[in-house]
Amino acid sequence: MQLVAVSPRLRRFIRFALGSALATLVSAVAFWVMFHTLHAPPEVASVTAFASGAIVNFVSNRYWAWDRRSRSGLSRDLGSYAVLAIATALAAAGATRATKSYAPHVDAFAAHLAVVVEASYFATYAAMFLVKFAVLDRVIFRSRSQVEKTTRA
């Protein structure tokens, strides 16, 4: 059996996708508990889900997908990641708020408001998936060797 060579970027993308899937699962559970069980407003459920998933996502991205084990640059990476994550979370909070406001006016959605609001939350994150990978790979977790290659070119 011959193993297929996988480029470092593809390996990072696969690990990013797996870490994102785990973070999504954690976020889904947090959103469900807050919105369905505790009847929190969608903005509170979104922020709680965001915080839960962001922790899992940062750790899996930095230490596993991009294999950055050194403490050097940790605060810079964390700060940059936080800006990206917060921008995405604000978009998701806006989407859930708009969905909760407008979905009751659509007969097909009114009876399933909680599911529709939750779907809007995850649709926002799905739309940002490739954008986040590109920003993480090209800016936030960019290696020194990538910087040297681009400055020489």
Automatic annotation (TrEMBL):
Topological relation to the membrane, as annotated? Multi-pass membrane protein
Q: Does the keyword Membrane apply?
A: yes
Where are the annotated coiled coils located? Answer: none
* Cell compartments where the protein resides: Membrane
GO CC annotations on file: plasma membrane
InterPro entries associated with the record: GtrA_CellWall_Glycosyl, GtrA_DPMS_TM
Task: Please classify the protein's predominant subcellular localization into one broad category.
Answer: membrane
Q: GO biological process annotations for this chain's record? A: polysaccharide biosynthetic process
For this chain, the family text in UniProt reads: Belongs to the GtrA family.
Against PANTHER family, the record matches this protein to: PROPHAGE BACTOPRENOL-LINKED GLUCOSE TRANSLOCASE HOMOLOG
Can you say what this protein is called?
Answer: GtrA/DPMS transmembrane domain-containing protein
- Which organism does this record belong to? Rugosimonospora africana
